[in-house]
Amino acid sequence: YWDWTDERTAKEGLPDLLRPRAVVLKLPNGGSRTLSTNPLATYHFEDPRPNGFQNIDNDARDPWNPWAPIDKAYFKDWTSSYRWPTSTVNPKEEYYRQDMYVPSNDDYGWKSLKTAVGLLFSFPSDADKDEYPFIWDEFSNTRFQSKGTKAARKMKDYKAGNLEQPHNKVHLDLGGLGHMANNDYAGFDPIFYLH
């Protein structure tokens, strides 16, 4: 389990165990064993890739991911999952870029993530029960279905936060140009199952 909002995330960013391609395990008998493929760092694809895999040009128009590189993601060609890869068929992972965004205290860093998660626990107890569906609509997704109805009813804005925004932020912070930042490919990155 990895707590996105833990103070250690602010200081250290992504836990070290989730990065190296190889990992040394300490065994109960005092010995150790090296795994040449860290199952928490990457997933290796069979050849050929599953049908439907394609390379994607990132046009950098995503307002939630302003630091994403304007490059191509080679999902069809990459032989394993990557986090913050360079835009080449044989990429290097640029974890230093991830380290700039995850622990930072600016509008896109850990501080904003912690605030967004904290807002999830601020459901307005003073709201009329008639307003609960509208508050739920804001809480449950990033595209409010009831926005027009809410405005017509002259309801106040509760700013209770929404569940999807911090979740989406984790995808983007962890992925860069890689698998975790793309909904169609995120499930191939082992970190998907820890977020």
UniProtKB/TrEMBL annotation:
Tyrosinase copper-binding domain ranges (all copies): 1-195
Top-level taxon of origin: Eukaryota
A GO MF term: oxidoreductase activity
InterPro entries: Di-copper_centre_dom_sf (IPR008922), Tyrosinase_Cu-bd (IPR002227)
Cross-referenced SUPFAM superfamilies: Di-copper centre-containing domain
The name this protein goes by in its record: Unplaced genomic scaffold GYMLUscaffold_55, whole genome shotgun sequence
